[in-house]
């Protein structure tokens, strides 16, 4: 009877649907790039289960100043799909590795109008519950020359001060060691002279 109950329990457990668990999705916080350059937007996820063959990734884009997001990319069924009506239809490439839980995309030939928020969502069935993660992209026409000069000057001053401190430190050590050595030699010579005088008096 006990054997029958054990077998029945195993059978019932085997047909119970697998419960879904939460999935955690990660992207960067903010990325900077120049007009005409390419940039990789990373997206990965954590799930307690092995990576499913049905894993999916979705990317949406919300331009700065807009309240609406548009779909720009999907990965599902082992294939990548770029939205053919979005602003990145000819400038987006999937560079992720779903088997390693990587749903990264590459944006090419960036424009000033590409500034905005990119949101990644991932599903690893049966784990499909999770909060999408967002990264903000800031595209600049060029790096401000003045800012670059100031930054370089600050770095140069800091490095110069560090070198000066090191030089002073070793110079002080050298002077102290030289002073100690001089005192030691002087003291030794004085003792030697006093000993010679004492021997002469005894004679």
TrEMBL record:
Chief location bin: membrane
Subcellular location per the Swiss-Prot or TrEMBL entry: Membrane
Membrane topology: Single-pass type I membrane protein
Keywords: Disulfide bond, Glycoprotein, Immunoglobulin domain, Membrane, Signal, Transmembrane, Transmembrane helix
The keyword Signal belongs to this UniProt entry's keyword annotation: yes
Gene Ontology terms: cellular component: myelin sheath; plasma membrane
Signal peptide: 1-22
Domain Ig-like: 17-136
Family recorded in the similarity comment: Belongs to the myelin P0 protein family.
Protein name stated in the entry: Myelin protein zero
Species: Maylandia zebra (zebra mbuna)
Lineage: Eukaryota, Metazoa, Chordata, Craniata, Vertebrata
């Amino acid at each position: 009877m006990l054997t029958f109950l054990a077998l029945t329990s195993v059978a019932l457990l085997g047909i119970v649907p697998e419960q879904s668990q939460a999935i955690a999705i990660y992207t960067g916080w903010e990325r900077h790039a120049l007009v005409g350059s390419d940039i990789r937007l990373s997206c990965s996820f954590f799930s307690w289960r092995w990576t499913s063959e049905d894993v999916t990734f979705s990317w949406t884009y919300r331009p700065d100043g807009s309240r609406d997001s548009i779909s720009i990319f999907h990965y599902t069924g082992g294939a990548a799909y770029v939205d053919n009506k979005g602003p990145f239809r000819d400038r987006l490439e999937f560079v992720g590795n779903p088997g390693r839980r990587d749903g990264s995309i590459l944006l090419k030939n960036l424009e000033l109008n590409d500034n905005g928020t990119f949101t990644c969502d991932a599903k690893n069935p049966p784990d499909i519950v999770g909060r999408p993660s967002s990264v903000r992209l800031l595209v600049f026409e060029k790096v401000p020359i003045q800012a670059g000069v100031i930054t370089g000057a600050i770095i140069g001053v800091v490095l110069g001060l560090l070198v000066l401190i090191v030089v002073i430190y070793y110079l002080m050590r050298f002077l102290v060691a030289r002073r100690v050595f001089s005192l030691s030699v002087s003291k030794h010579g004085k003792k030697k002279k006093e000993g010679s005088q004492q021997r002469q008096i005894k004679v």
